[in-house]
Amino acid sequence: MVGLKLFRTGVTKAGVTEVAPRLAEFEADVQGLVEAHMETLLSVCLLASEYGTGPVHGGRIDSLGLDENGSPVVVEYKRGVDAGVINQGLFYLAWLLDHRAEFERLVRNRLGTIAASQVLWNGPRLICIAGDFTRYDVHAVREHRRSIDLVRYRPFGSDLFGLETVASVSGGIHMARRAQRQAVARTAWDVQGTSMMEELAGAVDEALLGLGDGVNRVERKQYRAYQRLRNFACVCPPQRSKLLVYLKVNPARVELIPGFTRDVSGLGHHGTGDLEVQLRNSGDVERALHLFRTSYAEA
Fold first, then answer.
1. DSSP characters over 254-273
2. Axis-axis angle for helices 135-143, 85-98 (nearest 10)
3. How far is CA 254 from CA 36, 69, 155, in A?
4. Of 31, 124, 164, 197, which cross-links 1 as Cys (Cβ 3.0–4.6 Å)?
5. Residues with Cβ < 8 Å from 97, sequence gap 6 or more?
6. Dist. CA 52–CA 58, nearest whole Å
7. Residues 165-187, buried b or exposed e (16+ Cβ, 10 A)?
8. What is the pLDDT of residues 82-140, one digit of tens each?
9. Positive or negative, the Cα torsion across 137, 140, 142, 147?
Protein backbone atom coordinates (compact mmCIF):
# COMPACT_ATOMS: atom_id res chain seq x y z
CA MET A 1 0.00 0.00 0.00
CA VAL A 2 2.98 2.28 0.46
CA GLY A 3 3.41 2.20 -3.32
CA LEU A 4 -0.33 2.38 -4.01
CA LYS A 5 -1.62 5.56 -5.65
CA LEU A 6 -5.28 6.41 -5.22
CA PHE A 7 -7.19 8.85 -7.47
CA ARG A 8 -10.66 10.35 -7.47
CA THR A 9 -12.22 10.42 -10.91
CA GLY A 10 -14.72 12.83 -12.37
CA VAL A 11 -14.30 15.56 -9.75
CA THR A 12 -12.53 18.07 -11.96
CA LYS A 13 -12.33 18.83 -15.66
CA ALA A 14 -8.75 17.62 -15.55
CA GLY A 15 -10.11 14.10 -15.01
CA VAL A 16 -8.48 12.74 -11.86
CA THR A 17 -7.24 14.05 -8.52
CA GLU A 18 -4.72 12.15 -6.42
CA VAL A 19 -5.70 11.30 -2.83
CA ALA A 20 -2.46 11.29 -0.84
CA PRO A 21 -1.89 8.67 1.89
CA ARG A 22 -0.78 9.78 5.34
CA LEU A 23 -0.17 8.51 8.85
CA ALA A 24 -2.68 9.09 11.60
CA GLU A 25 -1.93 12.01 13.88
CA PHE A 26 -2.19 9.81 16.97
CA GLU A 27 -2.10 6.06 17.62
CA ALA A 28 -5.42 6.37 19.45
CA ASP A 29 -7.05 7.58 16.22
CA VAL A 30 -6.21 4.27 14.51
CA GLN A 31 -7.34 2.24 17.50
CA GLY A 32 -10.61 4.14 17.80
CA LEU A 33 -11.46 3.71 14.12
CA VAL A 34 -10.63 0.00 14.02
CA GLU A 35 -12.47 -0.76 17.27
CA ALA A 36 -15.56 1.09 16.07
CA HIS A 37 -15.68 -1.07 12.92
CA MET A 38 -13.75 -4.17 13.97
CA GLU A 39 -16.22 -6.74 12.67
CA THR A 40 -16.26 -5.12 9.23
CA LEU A 41 -12.51 -4.52 9.00
CA LEU A 42 -11.13 -7.65 10.69
CA SER A 43 -14.13 -9.98 11.21
CA VAL A 44 -13.33 -9.82 14.93
CA CYS A 45 -15.86 -9.17 17.69
CA LEU A 46 -14.45 -6.63 20.15
CA LEU A 47 -14.62 -7.88 23.74
CA ALA A 48 -12.56 -5.25 25.56
CA SER A 49 -10.47 -2.14 24.90
CA GLU A 50 -7.37 -1.22 26.95
CA TYR A 51 -7.76 -4.43 28.95
CA GLY A 52 -5.60 -4.48 32.09
CA THR A 53 -3.64 -7.67 32.73
CA GLY A 54 -3.32 -7.19 36.48
CA PRO A 55 -0.69 -5.80 38.87
CA VAL A 56 1.72 -8.75 38.50
CA HIS A 57 1.82 -8.78 34.71
CA GLY A 58 1.44 -5.01 34.57
CA GLY A 59 0.25 -4.64 31.00
CA ARG A 60 -2.66 -3.25 29.02
CA ILE A 61 -3.92 -4.97 25.86
CA ASP A 62 -5.03 -2.47 23.22
CA SER A 63 -7.92 -4.62 21.91
CA LEU A 64 -9.10 -8.07 22.94
CA GLY A 65 -11.52 -9.94 20.71
CA LEU A 66 -12.87 -13.17 19.24
CA ASP A 67 -12.65 -13.86 15.52
CA GLU A 68 -15.28 -15.45 13.27
CA ASN A 69 -13.84 -18.94 13.86
CA GLY A 70 -13.85 -18.61 17.65
CA SER A 71 -10.11 -17.89 18.02
CA PRO A 72 -9.00 -15.40 20.70
CA VAL A 73 -7.41 -12.26 19.20
CA VAL A 74 -5.01 -9.69 20.62
CA VAL A 75 -4.75 -6.50 18.54
CA GLU A 76 -1.88 -4.04 19.05
CA TYR A 77 -1.59 -0.65 17.32
CA LYS A 78 1.33 1.64 16.48
CA ARG A 79 1.15 4.98 14.69
CA GLY A 80 4.34 4.42 12.67
CA VAL A 81 7.15 1.86 12.63
CA ASP A 82 7.87 0.33 16.03
CA ALA A 83 10.38 -2.47 16.48
CA GLY A 84 8.70 -3.56 19.72
CA VAL A 85 5.16 -4.13 18.49
CA ILE A 86 5.57 -7.88 17.79
CA ASN A 87 7.31 -8.68 21.07
CA GLN A 88 4.76 -6.61 22.96
CA GLY A 89 1.92 -8.49 21.28
CA LEU A 90 3.52 -11.87 22.00
CA PHE A 91 3.90 -10.81 25.64
CA TYR A 92 0.14 -10.28 25.80
CA LEU A 93 -0.58 -13.47 23.86
CA ALA A 94 1.41 -15.46 26.46
CA TRP A 95 -0.64 -13.80 29.22
CA LEU A 96 -3.85 -14.73 27.40
CA LEU A 97 -2.88 -18.41 27.21
CA ASP A 98 -2.23 -18.39 30.96
CA HIS A 99 -5.61 -16.77 31.69
CA ARG A 100 -8.04 -18.81 29.58
CA ALA A 101 -10.78 -18.86 32.19
CA GLU A 102 -10.69 -15.06 32.46
CA PHE A 103 -10.98 -14.70 28.69
CA GLU A 104 -13.83 -17.22 28.49
CA ARG A 105 -15.63 -15.24 31.19
CA LEU A 106 -15.34 -12.15 28.98
CA VAL A 107 -16.79 -14.11 26.06
CA ARG A 108 -19.60 -15.47 28.21
CA ASN A 109 -20.56 -12.01 29.45
CA ARG A 110 -20.49 -10.52 25.94
CA LEU A 111 -21.64 -13.36 23.68
CA GLY A 112 -23.17 -16.03 25.90
CA THR A 113 -22.40 -19.50 27.23
CA ILE A 114 -22.35 -21.32 23.87
CA ALA A 115 -19.74 -18.97 22.39
CA ALA A 116 -17.60 -19.32 25.54
CA SER A 117 -17.69 -23.11 25.31
CA GLN A 118 -16.54 -23.03 21.67
CA VAL A 119 -13.43 -20.84 22.04
CA LEU A 120 -10.70 -22.28 19.78
CA TRP A 121 -7.56 -22.32 21.91
CA ASN A 122 -5.27 -24.09 19.43
CA GLY A 123 -4.89 -20.97 17.32
CA PRO A 124 -4.93 -17.68 19.30
CA ARG A 125 -4.05 -14.76 17.03
CA LEU A 126 -1.98 -11.60 17.24
CA ILE A 127 -2.84 -8.79 14.82
CA CYS A 128 -0.36 -5.88 14.71
CA ILE A 129 -1.67 -2.76 12.95
CA ALA A 130 0.97 -0.11 12.28
CA GLY A 131 2.03 2.60 9.89
CA ASP A 132 4.67 0.25 8.48
CA PHE A 133 6.93 -2.71 9.22
CA THR A 134 10.56 -3.48 8.49
CA ARG A 135 11.88 -6.53 6.67
CA TYR A 136 13.19 -7.67 10.06
CA ASP A 137 9.60 -7.65 11.40
CA VAL A 138 8.43 -9.80 8.49
CA HIS A 139 11.31 -12.25 9.05
CA ALA A 140 10.67 -12.39 12.80
CA VAL A 141 7.01 -13.28 12.27
CA ARG A 142 7.93 -16.20 10.03
CA GLU A 143 10.22 -17.60 12.73
CA HIS A 144 7.48 -17.74 15.38
CA ARG A 145 5.05 -20.60 15.85
CA ARG A 146 2.12 -18.30 16.55
CA SER A 147 -0.66 -16.97 14.37
CA ILE A 148 0.48 -13.42 13.60
CA ASP A 149 -0.80 -10.88 11.07
CA LEU A 150 1.15 -7.71 10.28
CA VAL A 151 -1.27 -5.15 8.87
CA ARG A 152 -0.26 -1.76 7.45
CA TYR A 153 -2.85 1.02 7.69
CA ARG A 154 -3.18 4.21 5.65
CA PRO A 155 -5.81 6.96 5.76
CA PHE A 156 -6.38 8.52 2.33
CA GLY A 157 -7.76 12.04 2.39
CA SER A 158 -10.44 12.64 5.00
CA ASP A 159 -12.80 9.72 4.38
CA LEU A 160 -10.85 6.71 3.06
CA PHE A 161 -9.02 4.12 5.15
CA GLY A 162 -6.95 1.23 3.84
CA LEU A 163 -5.58 -1.95 5.41
CA GLU A 164 -2.91 -4.11 3.77
CA THR A 165 -1.65 -7.45 5.05
CA VAL A 166 2.15 -7.33 4.99
CA ALA A 167 2.72 -10.80 6.46
CA SER A 168 0.44 -13.52 7.77
CA VAL A 169 1.56 -16.72 9.49
CA SER A 170 -0.63 -19.43 11.01
CA GLY A 171 0.27 -20.99 14.34
CA GLY A 172 1.81 -24.42 14.85
CA ILE A 173 4.50 -26.26 12.96
CA HIS A 174 4.45 -25.23 9.32
CA MET A 175 4.30 -28.05 6.82
CA ALA A 176 5.18 -27.89 3.16
CA ARG A 177 2.23 -27.44 0.82
CA ARG A 178 2.54 -30.99 -0.51
CA ALA A 179 2.54 -32.39 3.03
CA GLN A 180 -0.50 -30.27 3.86
CA ARG A 181 -2.39 -31.66 0.88
CA GLN A 182 -1.45 -35.24 1.72
CA ALA A 183 -2.60 -34.73 5.31
CA VAL A 184 -6.13 -33.80 4.20
CA ALA A 185 -7.13 -37.42 3.66
CA ARG A 186 -5.93 -38.32 7.16
CA THR A 187 -8.30 -35.97 8.97
CA ALA A 188 -11.56 -37.01 10.63
CA TRP A 189 -13.33 -35.96 7.44
CA ASP A 190 -12.57 -39.22 5.63
CA VAL A 191 -14.91 -41.07 7.98
CA GLN A 192 -17.88 -39.46 6.24
CA GLY A 193 -16.70 -39.38 2.64
CA THR A 194 -15.91 -41.90 -0.06
CA SER A 195 -12.44 -41.98 -1.62
CA MET A 196 -13.77 -39.82 -4.46
CA MET A 197 -14.97 -37.19 -1.99
CA GLU A 198 -11.60 -37.33 -0.22
CA GLU A 199 -9.86 -36.61 -3.53
CA LEU A 200 -12.30 -33.78 -4.18
CA ALA A 201 -11.58 -32.29 -0.73
CA GLY A 202 -7.85 -32.52 -1.49
CA ALA A 203 -8.31 -30.71 -4.81
CA VAL A 204 -10.30 -27.92 -3.14
CA ASP A 205 -7.69 -27.63 -0.39
CA GLU A 206 -4.93 -27.31 -3.00
CA ALA A 207 -6.87 -24.71 -4.98
CA LEU A 208 -7.63 -22.52 -1.95
CA LEU A 209 -4.14 -22.72 -0.44
CA GLY A 210 -2.68 -21.97 -3.85
CA LEU A 211 -4.43 -18.61 -4.16
CA GLY A 212 -1.63 -16.82 -2.28
CA ASP A 213 1.22 -17.12 0.20
CA GLY A 214 -0.80 -15.46 2.95
CA VAL A 215 -3.54 -18.11 3.13
CA ASN A 216 -3.94 -19.76 6.53
CA ARG A 217 -6.11 -22.79 7.24
CA VAL A 218 -8.09 -23.07 10.48
CA GLU A 219 -9.51 -26.45 11.52
CA ARG A 220 -12.84 -26.56 13.30
CA LYS A 221 -14.97 -29.62 13.96
CA GLN A 222 -17.81 -28.38 11.76
CA TYR A 223 -15.77 -26.80 8.95
CA ARG A 224 -12.32 -25.87 7.67
CA ALA A 225 -11.76 -22.12 7.21
CA TYR A 226 -9.35 -20.54 4.73
CA GLN A 227 -8.27 -17.16 5.96
CA ARG A 228 -6.53 -14.06 4.65
CA LEU A 229 -6.80 -11.88 7.74
CA ARG A 230 -10.51 -12.68 7.42
CA ASN A 231 -12.17 -15.88 6.21
CA PHE A 232 -12.73 -16.07 2.47
CA ALA A 233 -13.81 -19.73 2.24
CA CYS A 234 -15.25 -22.38 4.56
CA VAL A 235 -15.38 -26.04 3.53
CA CYS A 236 -17.69 -28.46 5.33
CA PRO A 237 -16.89 -32.17 5.79
CA PRO A 238 -17.70 -34.17 2.64
CA GLN A 239 -21.18 -35.55 2.28
CA ARG A 240 -21.84 -38.79 0.43
CA SER A 241 -22.14 -37.15 -2.98
CA LYS A 242 -21.05 -33.51 -2.64
CA LEU A 243 -18.78 -31.04 -0.93
CA LEU A 244 -20.15 -27.70 0.30
CA VAL A 245 -18.01 -24.55 0.16
CA TYR A 246 -19.17 -21.20 1.56
CA LEU A 247 -17.65 -18.03 0.09
CA LYS A 248 -17.77 -14.36 1.02
CA VAL A 249 -19.17 -13.34 -2.34
CA ASN A 250 -22.35 -11.30 -2.71
CA PRO A 251 -24.89 -13.75 -4.22
CA ALA A 252 -26.66 -10.84 -5.94
CA ARG A 253 -23.55 -10.31 -8.10
CA VAL A 254 -23.36 -13.94 -9.22
CA GLU A 255 -25.45 -15.87 -11.74
CA LEU A 256 -26.92 -18.56 -9.49
CA ILE A 257 -27.01 -22.01 -11.06
CA PRO A 258 -29.35 -24.62 -9.49
CA GLY A 259 -27.37 -27.52 -8.10
CA PHE A 260 -24.12 -25.53 -8.16
CA THR A 261 -24.50 -22.14 -6.45
CA ARG A 262 -27.06 -20.98 -3.89
CA ASP A 263 -27.81 -17.81 -1.92
CA VAL A 264 -27.67 -18.74 1.78
CA SER A 265 -27.71 -15.24 3.24
CA GLY A 266 -30.02 -15.38 6.23
CA LEU A 267 -29.90 -19.18 6.35
CA GLY A 268 -28.11 -21.06 9.09
CA HIS A 269 -25.02 -23.06 8.10
CA HIS A 270 -21.58 -23.91 9.41
CA GLY A 271 -18.76 -21.49 8.65
CA THR A 272 -19.08 -18.02 7.14
CA GLY A 273 -20.16 -16.67 3.76
CA ASP A 274 -23.40 -15.99 1.90
CA LEU A 275 -22.68 -17.97 -1.27
CA GLU A 276 -22.88 -21.76 -1.16
CA VAL A 277 -21.03 -23.72 -3.84
CA GLN A 278 -21.87 -27.41 -4.30
CA LEU A 279 -19.04 -29.52 -5.71
CA ARG A 280 -19.54 -33.07 -6.98
CA ASN A 281 -16.52 -33.67 -9.22
CA SER A 282 -13.24 -32.15 -10.42
CA GLY A 283 -15.08 -30.31 -13.19
CA ASP A 284 -17.08 -28.42 -10.56
CA VAL A 285 -13.84 -27.35 -8.88
CA GLU A 286 -12.66 -25.85 -12.20
CA ARG A 287 -16.01 -24.06 -12.58
CA ALA A 288 -15.68 -22.65 -9.06
CA LEU A 289 -12.13 -21.32 -9.38
CA HIS A 290 -13.23 -17.82 -10.45
CA LEU A 291 -15.54 -17.67 -7.40
CA PHE A 292 -12.66 -18.76 -5.14
CA ARG A 293 -10.49 -15.99 -6.60
CA THR A 294 -13.25 -13.39 -6.18
CA SER A 295 -13.76 -14.27 -2.51
CA TYR A 296 -9.99 -14.28 -1.91
CA ALA A 297 -9.65 -10.82 -3.49
CA GLU A 298 -12.54 -9.40 -1.47
CA ALA A 299 -11.06 -10.71 1.79
1. S---TTTEEE-TTS--SSS-
2. 30
3. 30, 25, 31
4. 164
5. 121, 124
6. 7
7. bbbbbbbeeeeeeeeebeebeee
8. 989 999 999 999 999 999 999 999 999 999 999 999 999 998 999 999 999 999 999 99
9. negative
